[in-house]
Amino acid sequence: MKPDDFEKQLERQPFRKVPSEWREEILEAARAASTPLAPRPAPQASPWWREWLWPAPQACAGLAAVWLVILGLSLTPSGPEAPAIAANTPAASVTSTTNLFEQRRELARLLDNAYEPEPVRKSPAAPGPRSERTAPPRV
After folding, report:
1. What is the Cβ-side half-sphere exposure of residue 106, based on CA atoms within 13 angstroms?
2. What is the Cα–Cα distance from 43 to 51, expressed in whole angstroms?
3. Which residues contact 57 (CB under 8 A, 6 or more apart)?
4. Which of 9, 14, 96, 116 is spaced 20 to 30 Å from 126 by Cα?
């Protein structure tokens, strides 16, 4: 059967009436579908920092947490014994301070002698053009 023959046969058949109980169900479903949904609130402009952090907010929050931990660890003393060690450390004695000062002075003296500029020598007159090179013979 060709498609055209099938369409002609369908055209000849009379329409049947929809049962009344179906009609009510269909109309009720259409009414429920046509009721408007609750309107969505209009989107508001986000603050600049949210726009800046939007590509990866979790990554930025994690990075901030890591920096806070590092900052907290750097500000805390290294342990409970840190104040006790600092209290028990003797102050630098006068002799050790004097020895350190003498060592630095000697080092400065040695370094100054090592880098003394050489005496300025008078150089001969500026050399002329270099003409020692000869041209190769032409063949």
Report:
1. 6
2. 14
3. 50
4. 116
Q: Is the distance from CB of 49 to CB of 55 less than 8 angstroms?
A: no
Distance CA 55, CA 27 (A): 47
Q: What are the extents of the domains in the chain?
A: 3-33
The pTM for the full model equals: 0.26
Mention every residue, 6+ apart, whose C-beta is less than 8 A from residue 50. Answer: 57
Amino acid at 63: L
Q: Kindly list the distances between the CA atom of residue 43 and the CA atoms of 46, 51, 55, 114, in Å, as whole numbers in the listed order.
A: 9, 14, 19, 75
CA distances from 84 to 33, 79, 89 (A): 78, 10, 9
Geometric angle at alpha carbon 46, from 40 and 50, rounded to 5° = 130
- CA 79 vs CA 88, 90, 91, 124: distances in Å: 15, 20, 22, 71
Rounded CA separation 25/75 (Å): 73
DSSP class of residue 122 equals P
